[in-house]
Design brief:
Helices cover about 30% and strands about 30% of the residues. With about 350 residues, it is an alpha+beta fold. A hairpin with a 4-residue loop joins strand 15 and strand 16.
Length: about 350
């Protein structure tokens, strides 16, 4: 990337009172409030360094996820937290800022577990670098983790370094259906404690049943044995493989199951809180799925958001709108806390970076 692009961005930051950085704008529900200048970071793109033997790479924030995915695939590597919206043009910076992880987070961890270092513009238009480009790095305060989920409120991401993992040779998905959420949740809890290595674990309500989805990865010659062991924990099963299996998870990660007139809302929760939320969503006829071992709910909401907002507040849950047209971006019981405010004051004392 030429220094001229960086200099231009720095000048824009200095000349504006309030800003919110954007890349490809694939998270359509996250918009800048009235009176806030949109800072286009889409030109800040490109892969700067990739060391396959070290399982690390460094890229600019506007780099598309599909470009990174293709690069890693050439060496049988991948970002194991399954970043969503790869096919729709999602970028590395937007994934970090919105804290978006896919089904692979269940086994491998989320996006914050893979960020090694960042470079970003603070509220004074200064380029700040924190963290490093290698896995074994303990230099300085762990600001990279704070940038995950910050939604641009702490600065504009410019450069990011990530660690990656070897890509499984093949995948299989096991599907088991249950008549009630209680039945599905009981089996899910059993699976979280079983000795079988599971990459993704989800519950998908469909019509009057609840489907338990279990993804396995590894050497194809071991799948039969592993699936036989799974039968100790789940009832009658269906097995997906090949193109049907990969397309199933791609449809999930691209949110193709979301109706056109709905807003996509992400809600972190715990398995114990799923029944109450599901009852509310069922009453409101919302399509939903429970991902990451029922620790994240993805909700397709087609009614006014204030109703969902109030329920989340009553349940002490927080939600974030990701896709669709939304008059509310943060829903429910958000509490940034004193620690966040201290970091905000240090990096952006003039509050130039808007909190959406």
């Amino acid at each position: 990337m030429k220094n001229g692009v960086i200099d231009e961005i720095g000048e824009i930051i200095q000349s504006q009172d309030r800003l919110l950085a954007f890349g490809s704008k694939t998270k359509t529900a996250i918009e800048a409030p009235t009176g806030v200048t949109t800072l286009d970071m889409s030109k800040v793109k490109g892969i700067l360094e990739y060391v396959p033997s070290e399982y690390t790479f460094t890229a600019l924030a506007g780099t598309r996820l599909d470009e990174i995915d293709q690069m890693l695939a050439e060496n049988n590597q991948f970002l194991p937290f399954d970043p969503p919206l790869i096919k729709k043009g999602g970028t590395l910076g937007g994934t970090v800022a919105a804290n978006l992880s896919g089904p692979g987070r269940y086994h491998y961890g989320g996006v914050r577990d893979f960020v090694l270092g960042v470079q970003f513009f603070d509220g004074k238009a200064r380029l700040i670098r924190s963290g490093g480009k290698v896995v074994k790095n303990a230099a300085g305060f762990d600001i990279p983790k704070l940038m995950v989920g910050s939604l641009g409120s702490l600065g504009a991401l410019v450069e990011l370094s990530f660690k990656v993992f070897p890509r499984p040779k093949e995948y299989r998905t096991v599907i088991s259906s249950y008549p009630t959420l209680t039945d599905a949740m009981e089996h899910l809890i059993q699976l979280t404690a079983c000795p079988i290595e599971i990459l993704s674990l989800e519950i998908e309500p469909i019509n009057s049943s609840y489907n338990l989805r279990i993804r396995l990865g590894g050497s194809p010659e071991l799948f039969d044995e592993r699936i036989d062991r799974l039968k100790q924990f789940v009832d009658d099963i269906e097995v997906l493989d090949g193109e049907a299996e990969s397309m199933y998870w791609e449809n999930i990660n691209e949110f193709r199951w979301l109706p056109e007139d709905s807003t996509l809302v992400k809600v972190p929760l715990t398995p114990k809180l799923v029944p109450d939320l599901d009852e509310f969503l069922q009453q409101n006829r919302s399509i939903r799925r429970y991902s990451v071992g029922a620790n994240v709910a993805w909700i397709a909401w087609s009614k006014p958001l204030n109703k969902l907002d109030q329920h989340l507040k009553d349940s002490n849950l927080a939600g974030l709108t990701i896709l669709g047209s939304a008059d509310l971006i943060r829903l429910g019981a958000w509490d940034t806390g004193n620690f966040y405010q201290r970091i905000k004051n240090a990096l952006d004392p003039d509050e130039k970076w808007t909190e959406v």
